[in-house]
Design goal:
- There is one protein chain.
- 5% of the residues lie in helices and 58% in strands.
- By secondary structure, the chain is mainly beta.
- The chain has one domain: Maltoporin, Chain A.
- The strands form three sheets. The chain has a 22-stranded antiparallel beta barrel. Strands 1-6-7-4-5 form a five-stranded mixed beta sheet. Strands 2-3 form a two-stranded antiparallel sheet.
- The protein is globular.
- Residues 49-151 form the TonB-dependent receptor plug domain.
């Protein structure tokens, strides 16, 4: 395998003079962050799962402009984009499919019942994100169905000041698009306006973002509009109300996205609305409850031939309403977590039909630190689906503290993925559903060792996952449409490592994040089929992020290496330099600086070397 070349070594060496001598070590606050990936209140330093957290401070310094680009830098996360700048992307964890990863906002599920292709239709600006948590492994005990390989939870900020901000950015490869496009240099541009209002009793934040690109090749232009609003009301010290609303309009050319080469003139328009209302109540010193209702509405208009809407057009309208109640009860011998939730899914579609199903779940969890040097989390999630009946997902997490810095962790549990409506009922010329599909069921076991000290966090572990009734879209030859089947058992052995080192020298703060993952996957299935998705799963994944900043400037370099089981590999390097004035900040990005040619999914080449420039103004009291 070719991991690096001389240019990449020289680039890394160019940053070394910034290091200097570490005269002072500053503790990273992330160690005491309460992990929202758990229903119980568990600090990151005491968690027994494989959880990675990317804080808002890190996000600000990285060479990224949207959520998709951030996710592509997380350990064990496989982001497969069909187009840059948020056109369309799928996300998966540790070799699973994009349907097996659950996406949440503040713990609320935002998955679409039509297809997980829409999971990242999230209009959340980076400035509104407090942190991103990635929970790897079987997460059904915590979140219920469809968290088969893990979950990504996006935590939004709580407003702490009144401010107004504007962000304008643009970029280009300074190259002409392909010959067929014939319309000049490839570019993108965006603007974002935001405002927040802080009051002792209530806080509000609102953002509007608009982006446009003419596409890296013929018929891949995109434009999107995003609106995000969040409000909080502190009724008193023990009771709080929070609400959130968002809207996203995304229109993009879909040349080669789903049915290459026949979809050369395809276009897709997706509109997504999401709203949630929740409250938090500390009823006593020991007892806490939090009810929540959410609603997600999505319209998907796929135009197979954009010039003739009478041919191959698909229109889907989905709605998912959820209600849940989470509670926590603390005792002298441990903490109990109890909860209920119901989800009501509906779809009306031109080529899927009209369907509905309901899902009801209940969970119970217990955590104790009363055993010497050990922490124990044990629990189960009981689920009833009107289409697939009853199932139970048990799990246990164990942690043994060797000393205050070293800890051994072990966890094991089951999980499930219910087929989407696309899996079951789609009726297109190139893709046909299968109403006889059974749900996927998995069991995963992991062991790891963790190290935490002031400024240093490390995790190294091994896991084994077996998925029964694994669903894959396959076909016997290129002339036959793809169709999903329960193909057999999917087994994955994995090794994952992650190291985060933070230190301070003089007035400069440095952060180094290194990660490596190895996956050995096997699938027992009938030979002679062409797979639509699983043959491109990652086998090797490595990342190296380096960040340095002080009060007025910041610099970062993001390196990542991907090799898929098809032996396709690529190494990408992105760079950011930023400078802050009293109310104004300027940043410049160079992405894919070695101009690597690569494909993340389907037959869609991603852009080569790319330059961006942004200016951000913020007025705050």
């Amino acid at each position: 395998m070719k991991f690096i070349n001389n240019h990449q070594i020289l680039l890394a060496a160019a940053f070394l003079p910034l290091w200097g001598h570490a005269q002072e070590t500053k503790q990273e606050n992330i160690q005491e962050v309460i992990v929202h990936a758990n229903r119980l209140q568990i600090p990151f330093s005491k968690d027994n799962r494989n959880v990675e957290i990317l804080s808002s401070e890190q996000i600000k310094q990285l060479p990224v402009k949207n959520l998709n680009e951030v996710l592509g830098l997380l350990n064990g996360v496989d982001l497969r984009q069909r187009g840059p700048f948020g056109a369309q992307a799928d996300v998966s964890i540790d070799g699973g499919s994009f349907e097996q990863t659950l996406v949440l906002v503040n713990g609320a599920k935002v998955s679409d019942p039509q297809t997980a292709h829409h999971s990242l239709n999230l209009p959340i600006p980076l400035d509104a994100i407090e942190r991103i948590e990635v929970l790897r492994g079987a997460a059904a005990r915590i979140y219920g169905v469809n968290a088969l390989t893990g979950a990504i939870n996006i935590i939004t900020k709580t407003v702490d000041k009144t401010s107004i901000q504007a962000n304008v950015y643009t970029g280009s490869s300074f190259k002409n698009r392909d010959e067929e496009a014939k319309d000049g240099i490839y570019y993108h541009a965006g603007t974002q306006i935001g405002a927040s209002w802080f009051n002792d009793k209530h806080q509000h934040q609102v953002y509007y973002n608009k982006e446009k690109s003419n596409g890296q090749r013929y018929n891949t232009a995109s434009q999107n509009d995003k609106i995000f609003y969040q409000g909080n009301l502190a009724i008193n010290n023990d009771n709080e109300l929070e609400w959130l609303g968002s809207y996203m309009y995304n229109r993009f050319g879909a040349n080669g996205f789903y049915a290459a080469p026949d979809d050369k003139e395809s276009e897709e328009i997706v509109e997504t609305m999401f709203a949630s209302l929740s409250s938090k109540h500390q009823l006593s010193e020991q007892f806490y409850v939090s009810p929540r209702i959410t609603n997600r509405y999505n319209e998907d208009d796929y135009r197979f031939i954009r010039q003739d809407l009478a041919i191959g057009r698909s229109q889907h309208y989905t709605n998912a309403f959820s209600a849940e109640l989470n509670s926590r009860y603390q005792t002298t011998f441990g903490d109990f977590g109890l909860g209920l939730e119901s989800r009501f899914d509906r779809i009306s579609s031109s080529n899927i039909g009209s369907h509905n199903r309901n899902n009801h779940g209940a969970y119970a969890e217990f955590r104790t630190e009363q055993l010497k040097n050990m922490t124990v989390n044990v629990g189960a999630y009981v689920n009833y689906n009107t289409q697939y009946g009853w199932q139970v997902y048990p799990g246990i997490d164990l942690g043994y503290n060797i000393n205050p810095q070293w800890k051994i962790v072990f966890n094991t549990g089951s999980s499930q993925r219910i087929p989407s409506y696309t899996d079951l009922y789609l009726n297109q010329s190139k893709n046909i559903g299968n109403p006889n599909l059974r749900s996927e069921n998995a069991w995963q076991t992991e062991g790891a060792i963790k190290f935490q000290s002031s400024g240093f966090i490390a995790h190294a572990g091994y896991f084994f996952r077996e998925i029964n009734e694994f669903i894959d879209w396959v076909r016997p030859d290129a002339q036959t449409p793809y169709q999903p089947f329960n193909m057999g058992n999917n087994k994955v052995h994995g090794i994952n490592t992650n190291f985060l080192y933070t230190f301070q020298a003089n007035d400069i703060r440095y952060r180094v994040n290194l990660g490596y993952n190895y996956l050995d996957a096997s699938l027992k299935q009938t030979s002679g089929f062409i797979s639509k998705y699983h043959l491109e799963n990652l086998k090797h994944q490595a990342k190296l992020l380096f960040m340095a900043n002080n009060a007025i400037w910041n610099a970062s370099i993001a390196n990542r290496f991907h090799q898929r089981i098809s032996d396709k590999s690529y190494f990408l390097t992105d760079l950011r330099l930023g400078y802050r004035f009293p109310s104004l900040s300027v940043y410049a990005d160079a992405q894919n600086i070695f101009d690597v040619t690569y494909i993340e999914t389907s037959a869609i080449p991603m852009p080569g070397r790319w330059y961006s420039l942004g200016i951000k103004y913020e007025w705050g009291s």
